[in-house]
Design goal:
The complex is a heterodimer of chains A (about 160) and B (about 160). Chain A is about 35% helix and about 20% strand. Chain A is an alpha+beta fold and about 160 residues long. Chain B has 2 domains: about 70 residues, Orthogonal Bundle (434 Repressor (Amino-terminal Domain)); about 55 residues, no CATH class. Chain B is built from 6 helices and 2 strands, in the order ααααββαα. Classes of the chains: A alpha+beta (about 160), B mainly alpha (about 160). At the A-B interface, α2 and α3 of A face α1 of B.
């Protein structure tokens, strides 16, 4: 069993640092797994102009997701969802064209482990389940199961409900 | 740690900052109205005569809204909007903000074709160093009774001083 701080010290997780263009103050923390950062680096679709939504690249939407989560009074409307089975405590956060998977370690705090393109989740119906299982496997591997907060959405993210 | 992709250009950063700020404010406004049971996405769509999914797309950042669309959303939510375009050298601040790479101290500002360099320089030390740094915040422009902003009055005084010199 490890604590969140052990995971941060060992480099398994890192706190999300706001980009230069985000001018709002941080209200709640978000932690990212190294593999999510690697996924972002190794996914060319994120930088593809043809896949941009609303004149913004998917990588910009991904950064905006974490900015909004960290700085907005309320995380994006209805876009934090508990995954089935809800008793496991895995949540997915929806941004335009993207799905981010993780869990909440305390009210209002997100630990993001992995992500997927929305188009991939539509094409492969089992991808969501695979990602959910991957999140749980990650928590088991690093001894972080006890940090998974379970409960209703308003308990996990009070300002999102 | 943030994403290690090529950082967006300064021009892009100004856009991302503005878009994020506008969408965040719209969502907060909608959340407030929704929590008070005053509005739903459907009711906003009905007021605007558009589909509910269009309202959803606007609230979730899937569209690049035009000024008219933005004004429509603000109108449907029953809110007001205030746009502030300012010179960062005129209003320095300790709080973070995206400053354009084209921003420059206004020591050679002009009114039309008439240069007011000396008047601006005379006035600049007071405006750019003393006040905002001491307050640590960009002073807000207030409206006076005649409906003219302080900034306008200040500019008018500088111009008059220039004419009389």
């Amino acid at each position: 069993m490890a604590t969140l701080w052990d995971a941060l010290r060992s480099g398994v997780l890192e706190e999300y640092r706001l980009p230069d263009w985000e001018v709002r103050p941080k209200l709640r923390p978000a932690f990212l797994a190294q593999e999510l950062l690697q996924w972002a680096d190794s996914t060319p679709e994120l930088m593809d102009n043809a896949k941009a939504i609303g004149r913004r690249l998917l990588i910009e939407h991904l950064a905006q997701l974490f900015c909004d989560f960290s700085c907005s009074k309320r995380p994006p409307a209805g876009d934090v969802r508990r995954m089935i089975p809800t008793k496991r405590g895995v949540v997915s956060v929806h941004a335009p064209g993207l799905r981010v998977y993780g869990w909440s370690c305390r009210p209002g705090c997100l630990i993001a482990i992995t992500a997927a393109l929305e188009t991939d989740t539509k094409l492969n119906r089992k991808l969501n389940d695979r990602k959910r299982d991957h999140v749980l496997a990650f928590a088991r591997k690093h001894g972080l199961e006890t940090t998974i907060l379970k409960g209703e959405l308003y308990e996990l993210f009070p300002s999102a409900s | 740690m943030s994403f290690s992709h090529r950082p967006p250009s300064n021009r892009r950063q100004v856009y991302l900052s503005l878009a994020g700020s506008i969408e965040g404010q719209l969502r907060d406004a909608y959340a407030k109205r929704h929590a008070a049971k005053l509005d739903t996405q459907t009711s906003i769509a009905e007021k605007l005569g558009v589909d509910r999914s269009a309202v959803n797309r606007r609230l979730t950042g899937k569209t690049n809204m035009t000024v008219e669309t933005l004004a429509d959303m603000v109108w449907a939510l029953g809110y007001c909007i205030d746009v502030n375009i300012f010179d960062p050298y005129e209003y320095p601040s300790n709080s973070p903000r995206v400053i354009s790479e084209h921003a420059a101290p206004t020591d050679a500002a002009t009114v039309g074709t008439t240069s007011i360099t000396s008047a601006k320089l005379e006035y600049a030390p007071y405006q750019t160093q003393d006040l905002p740094a001491a307050r640590g915040k960009r002073p807000r422009m207030r409206r006076c009774a005649a409906g003219v902003g302080r900034k306008t009055l200040a500019s008018w005084r500088i111009f008059r001083r220039y004419l009389s010199s």
